[in-house]
Specification:
This protein is α+β, with helices and mostly antiparallel strands. The chain has helices at 22-36, 38-42, 73-78, 89-94, 97-109, 142-148, 151-169, 176-185, 192-195, 200-219, 231-234, 240-247, and strands at residues 12-14, 47-52, 66-70, 83-87, 111-113, 131-133. The chain folds into two domains: 12-149, Zincin-like, CATH 3.30.2010; 160-247, no CATH class. The radius of gyration is 22 Å and the shape is elongated.
């Protein structure tokens, strides 16, 4: 018998507006459009969000973490979207709210209405608004820099730190004692008996967070923010006040 073939990986996945993860993402999207992108709001631009899992780190810099794609005429026949903002899920999960807002705001700046020579919005023969993809002004959108500061370098440092942390975490066994020591070094006292109750996946998440924290602190010049520890880690932490009582 031949080797079993692995199913082809799906590299794009539409983010549902109604589910637990998608709802706050679309709320952020709509807030940014309302506050800063009057042109898109006025023309009722239909914007979807989707995960992209095919982006990898590049030798010249970090992997792509966001991209705005204009829907083609065929795309608009298949789905009611004018633009799709692609996002890197690994980055999004651990990014801060400020980083997420800066990233989505940046991608929205790429979405623009197309005008004719007289400055009038162009519509197709079916009466639909025609859009275009706007290029950067110089190195970065000046509006984004004004609203979010020098966020671009912070996001790049953050993405590089994530890549290094995940490479360090690997796929090997995560020991209980060593993980407890790593968490202790990060300022979280989690007894080994509590770590014993975690699944292998939960231990790996905890180790990855320790690695992410260390890499961000090494790379940061003060702008990047360390994401909070996973919920199962925080719920297992013994408060410092209790430790002091036990040691008394």
């Amino acid at each position: 018998m031949g080797k079993l073939k692995r199913p082809k990986k799906v590299t794009y996945r539409l983010i549902a507006r109604e589910d637990e993860i998608g709802a706050p993402m679309y709320a952020l999207l709509e807030q940014l459009v309302s506050q800063h992108h009057e042109e898109l709001e006025r023309t009722n631009a239909r914007i979807a969000l989707a995960w992209c899992t095919s982006w990898k780190s590049d030798v010249d810099g970090p992997k792509t973490i966001g991209k705005c794609k204009r829907a083609s005429d065929l795309d608009r026949e298949l789905a009611e979207f004018d633009f799709i903002i692609l996002l890197d899920k690994d980055f999004w999960i651990v990014a801060t709210e400020k980083q997420r807002a800066a990233l989505v705001d940046h991608e929205l700046c790429h979405a623009a209405v197309k005008y004719d020579a007289d400055g009038e919005p162009i519509r197709d023969e079916r009466g639909r608004q025609v859009f275009r993809t706007r290029r950067h002004d110089l190195e970065e959108f000046s509006d984004i820099a004004a609203r979010h500061g020098c966020y671009k370098r912070d996001l790049e440092q953050f993405a590089k730190a994530l890549d290094r942390a995940r490479a360090q975490t690997g796929t090997g066994w995560v020991g209980y004692a060593s993980l407890s020591a790593r968490l202790e070094h990060a300022g979280l006292h989690v007894p080994i008996d509590r770590i014993l109750d975690w699944s292998e996946g939960e231990r790996r998440q905890a180790l990855e967070w320790c690695n992410i924290r260390r890499e961000i602190q090494k790379a940061s010049t003060g702008g990047a923010v360390v994401p909070p520890a996973p919920v199962h880690v925080l719920s297992a932490v013994v408060p410092q006040s209790l430790l002091e009582q036990q040691g008394a």
